[in-house]
Amino acid sequence: MKKFTDVYQIVTDKIVELLEKGTVPWKKGWTVVGGRPQMPMNLVSKKPYRGINVWMLAAAGYESPYWLTYKQAEKLGGQVRRGEQSTIAVFWKRDVIEDKKTGDEKRVFLLRYYRVFNVEQCDGLESKLPKVEKPKAKSKKFNPIAEAEKIVAGMPKAPSIEHNGSAACYSPALDRVKMPVKESFHGEGEYYSTLFHELSHSTGHATRVGRFAGCTEDAKKFGSEPYAKEELIAEMSAAFLSAISGIETTVDNSAAYIKGWLKALKNDHKMVVQAAAAAHRSADFILDVKFDE
Question: What is the pTM of this model?
Fold first, then answer.
């Protein structure tokens, strides 16, 4: 197994490869099962993947959200088909190392990875898959999305939200989200995913996750690495919340944004992994849930 520093590079290289093809992997981190969005999860534990794993697995392009290791497939009586390529999933491992200066032992977290396969790459697992109910017919009437409204209303220590702006933005100084009127958006999905993006920015405030502590003016400059990282965090967090709400994320995948992300990722091979972890913390805060890492 490679050193943990190389794992960052493996993940970043994959994300860069997708961006260079014009694909923004955090645009959609789920698949649709029975008419409902489903995050990638392990078939055996039924535990959803977190952080960068969501995007790495979703970007693999399979319709099924279920993944498992080679050994798990065998244990269930299935078999990975010959020639199928695995996808990596990363995890943090506690380890004890010796401090070179003092000789004392200290605990550290190292980034490792393992290989998983989608159930579509396997034979003999059909009976192990959860049953899928047929989706109900959707109403064509324009209505607020109840699950999205619930998320917005339930956010703890929420910033003020005003619907009188010409553009969507979050002001850290005023701790305020400004949004255009709802009718100006192309449907409910675009409105809520945009609102989730701005609320995700607001989690950086000192009263919440505190991500903005120590930020310089460079973080506000379009094209700078701090700006690109914060945008990654907000995009990914909004995608998580949108998936839970059953809507697709609207992502600015213009040439300017992709160019900015590519530049930042190539300069910092840890950025995309760190941004994904921060995005999950942001979404967890908005959802008012505690996750035991």
Answer: 0.66
